[in-house]
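Weekly modeling sync, notes
Attendees: S.R. (lead), two postdocs, one rotation student

Agenda item 3: backlog of single-chain predictions. S.R. asked that every request posted to the team notebook include the full sequence so nobody has to chase files. The rotation student volunteered to paste the first one in as an example of the format we agreed on. Action items at the bottom.

Example entry:
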Amino acid sequence: MEPINIPSFANRINVPSELSEEDFNYHHQGCHDKIPNITDFEIISTIGSGSFGEVFIVKEKSTQSIYALKKILYNLSSDPELIKKRAKRERDAMIICSNKNSKRAPKLYYAFLDQDDTSFNLVMEYISGGDFNSYCYKRMCDNNPFQLEEIKFYMAELVVCIENFHNLGFLHRDVKPENLMIDKDGHLVLCDFGSSKQIVSSSPPSIGSGSSSGPNGFSGLAATINNNTPPNFTSFLRNPNCSYTSYIGTPQYMAVEVVQGIVYSKLCDYWSLGAILYELVAGQALFVESPDTTEQKIRENIGNWRGLLNTAISKSQQPISKVAESLIRDLIAPERKRIDSGAIKKHPFFEGVDWQKISDRIETPPYTPAPSNPTDKSSFSIGGQ
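Predicted structure, as returned to the notebook:
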């Protein structure tokens, strides 16, 4: 199901009316200084398609380097201003992740605005292992359910992905299997930052390296937020800039507070973690009853999450261990009771997990992709070889 975004009133009155090349164009430090255009790349194949654009494997003609290129068309949309805002969000978050050398996000090399076809283009590293959703689907088709140790590994990796993104100053707001990539070594990488939101902090933003045509190199970047206390309405009154109200994300992974349109914080991403954990241990989605389930029905299910969760756990066709159930209930919970990364790491579900090895990406993954060549796309569900 595609992500949706219904901006809050405050966001609607602050949408930029136009993005110029100076505002959007960017090249990473170490790349050549010339901002490329679409003619500088040879499109090899399509690996992804969604509501806001397409993703291609491309080859840069001058260097023969292989990249992934995300093209976001804005004038064909019924809401071009929203598309522009999403493109800028994604570009901004990717620059921060790249400048901080994050291993849990795709590295951004170039960003450029193509006036001819009215598109924003993001040129990033190509992660050939495919998305986690495609991998899960293949496992299901092969009648090869995840074993507990595999689930623990991937959930631990996801915890670190989310925690790192928060520490770089952002909420993701669309954590789901489709937005998790498997890199060449078998580790998870969080991607698709179009729904992300900068966490406002009183500290000055860290610009880092890289080059942009805009003033001061790059404007509006969020600083790392260090307070990891679970926010509630009281904390919102103390610091309203760290809480948000936009209805944004993919419905079946949205936290209840997001669906209800009330104040939420970075803990919304850990509700999504709980929804994904339930899918892996139960073999089915928590809030989607069938492929025909409507968005309205999903929202109703999330609104009635307490009764639905009790029923789903008791009637699950695959047995759910008590320790897994405990973690699910700590994540699919009211925001004021939902646990954050510190408490998640201490949960008995993760007993035996070496968090330092997970963080350093030296824990051995249960699966390692084996691409046959640099442009192999067989791990992707669209157009696989």
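Discussion: group reviewed the output briefly. The mean pLDDT is 84.
Action items: rotation student to repeat for the remaining queue; S.R. to check formatting next week.
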